[in-house]
Specification:
single chain; 5-stranded antiparallel β-sheet; about 260 residues; 1 helix; binds magnesium ion; 8-stranded antiparallel β-sheet; mainly beta; Jelly Rolls
Length: about 260
């Protein structure tokens, strides 16, 4: 009898392991590919001078307002010709503001190099984390990507709240042209026990075109799995050094106005 039961038990165990493997969440599970937002051409100037009550986060001169996310040491990205360029060298990674924020209005300009190569998510990928809640890519990412004639999942294109909110339109300009995001961020509020009291909301204008309209986030933006909220109080704003092989993109004229 024993001889018969042993192989039977083995086969049950193998089936259980197989079921576990197939149930493991994959990045593809949370990709949405259609409908594709309409292309909206636009030529409005993207630069807006900071209002008098703004905190200037980058004025083209230095990275005094920024640190490395990993160890809070001075930011190691490159400043040249009034622009800030991502440092994609191994071990450098994301940078974030020294200051932490709650609700705010943010202006940031970015440019994908004219010589960009790669495709999909590996073409001019970066990101503006509207709240950096930890190291790496933890937080709420407004995607930065070359979305000019570059096919990818629509909840991962420029103007998306990564893998949550598809942009309402695609006003993305050609590589080599400056573009802008203007964001109104309403931070989530948590109860004393860490549970969610009110969710986060984001409104985003991309090159002056509304792409996210007071969107209610379902939690932090994740590469794999469903979004979840994690309690925090105030958080820095973070910029992403994405690990793809495409040419590094640049930022300029970054300012923020804290809101009550
Ligand atoms: Mg990104």
């Amino acid at each position: 009898m024993r001889r018969l039961l042993f192989p039977l038990a083995l086969s049950f165990a193998a089936t259980a392991v197989f079921a576990q493997e197939t149930a493991k969440p994959k990045p593809e599970d949370t990709e949405i590919w259609s409908p594709v937002p309409p292309v909206v051409s636009n030529t409005a100037p993207v630069t807006t001078a900071p209002p008098s009550d703004a905190t200037v986060l980058f004025d083209g001169k230095n990275l005094d307002q920024w640190v490395q996310v990993s160890d809070k040491s001075p930011a190691k990205w490159f400043v040249k010709d009034d622009t800030l360029t991502v440092n994609k060298e191994k071990g450098v990674g994301n940078i974030e503001t020294k200051k932490s924020f709650k609700n705010y209005q943010l202006h940031i300009e970015w440019k994908v190099p004219a010589t960009i190569t790669g495709e999909g998510q590996a073409r001019g990928n970066s990101g503006v984390f509207l709240a950096s809640t930890g190291t790496g890519d933890a937080g709420y990412e407004l995607q930065v990507l070359d979305s000019y004639q570059n096919k990818t999942y629509v909840n991962g294109m420029a103007g998306s709240l990564y893998k949550q909110a598809i942009p309402l339109a695609n006003p993305g300009r050609k590589p080599g042209e400056w573009q802008s995001y203007d964001v109104i961020w309403t931070a989530p509020i948590f109860n004393a026990d860490g549970s969610l009291k009110t969710p986060a909301y984001a409104t985003v204008l991309f090159n002056g075109v509304l792409v996210e309209d007071h969107y209610e986030l379902k939690g932090e933006t994740l590469y794999i799995g469903k979004p979840v909220y994690k309690a925090y109080d105030r958080a820095p704003i973070k910029l992403q050094a994405h690990g793809d092989k495409s040419e590094p993109l640049s930022f300029r004229n970054i300012w923020v106005r804290e809101l009550p």
